[in-house]
Write a structure and sequence with these properties.
Blueprint (H helix, E strand, L loop, with lengths): L14 E5 L1 H10 L12 H4 L34 E10 L7 E14 L3 E11 L5 E12 L23 E6 L4 H5 L12 H6 L9 H16 L7 E8 L8 E9 L2 E8 L2 E11 L1
Antiparallel strand pairs: 1-3, 2-5, 2-7, 3-4, 4-5, 6-8, 7-10, 8-9, 9-10
Length: about 280
């Protein structure tokens, strides 16, 4: 059957998820932490035994702590799926190691004409039921729109008409996708040249969530003084692919505890309509 708009509100079975100190360090390294860092300012994310420094986790690591399966929302061609949007909200600082109970629900399904936009929301809580993080992924499924449903809210994000208040740039490595895939996303689009060629790319591309993680690091350092406890939420739209080895420049426009941002490769926007809140 095609996409089922009546699946909105459906909740998958709860899943217990867990992560270790080693996985937290691996994630940090996979989104560039510690690279070309002569001051050692990211040792708290990349080591567990540095004198006088307690290990901490990067907030965006919540997005790779997987295990909560989505409820059924219909049948579709997996090749027609595009990860278009992503948000994450931290209700408190993510521990370096721990466990949570995660539930995945269909938050919305919108009719975009040529595509359906399925919004999946994961809510993770601790053993006492207190919330830890919430993530929302917007999946565009081409060929599944056109049933006459709600198109969803209009985009309200606008690029500020002034120079950015902060610009943070990071170089990605030529093997960045090979490192990032060790977090669990083994899609061959990011590692197999022949598979990437069939998808129309000259070389494997970087995971969108890797770009998201690099961007989260930039926001953390520029807007939270590097303190994960102050990181509230971030979200944006994936606009263009990134190739491993390319430089990411994150431009930020701050207004108190709220900021807008874009991530660019040169003049090309790769992560757009970014919003951030600090705590």
């Amino acid at each position: 059957m095609p996409i089922n708009p009546d699946a909105v509100g459906a909740v998958g079975e709860p899943a217990e998820v867990s992560w270790t100190s080693d996985q937290s360090m691996l994630y940090a390294l996979s989104v560039g932490a510690g690279a070309a860092d002569p001051t050692g300012s990211e040792l708290e994310f990349t080591t567990e035994n540095t004198a006088g420094i307690a290990q901490r986790a990067l907030p965006t690591q919540a997005l790779v702590i997987s295990g909560a399966r989505a409820p059924d929302f219909g049948d579709y061609d997996r090749a027609a799926l595009l990860h278009g949007e992503q948000q994450v909200q931290l209700h408190r600082e993510l521990p370096v190691q721990g466990s949570a109970v995660a539930r995945n629900r269909v938050a919305a399904i919108y009719d975009k004409g040529k595509a359906a936009l399925v919004v999946l929301e994961i809510n993770a809580s601790d053993g006492d039921g207190d919330p830890m993080w919430t993530s929302r992924a917007g999946l565009f499924i081409f060929g599944e729109g056109g049933w006459g449903g709600d198109r969803g809210p209009a985009a309200a994000w606008e690029l500020p008409d002034r120079a950015p208040d902060h610009v943070v740039g990071y170089d990605t490595r030529a093997d960045q996708a090979l490192l990032y895939r060790l977090n669990g996303d083994r899609n061959p689009l990011h590692s197999d040249p022949s598979f990437a060629a069939r998808a129309g790319f000259d070389t494997p591309i970087l995971h969108g969530l890797c770009t998201f993680g690099f961007t989260g690091r930039a926001l953390l350092h520029a807007l939270c003084d590097g303190d994960p406890a102050r990181f509230g939420s971030m979200g944006g739209r994936f606009k263009a692919p990134v190739l491993p080895g390319q430089r990411l420049d994150v431009q930020m426009w701050a207004d108190g505890d709220i900021a807008r941002f874009q991530t660019r490769v040169g003049d090309r926007v790769v992560l757009d309509a970014g919003t951030f809140t600090a705590r």
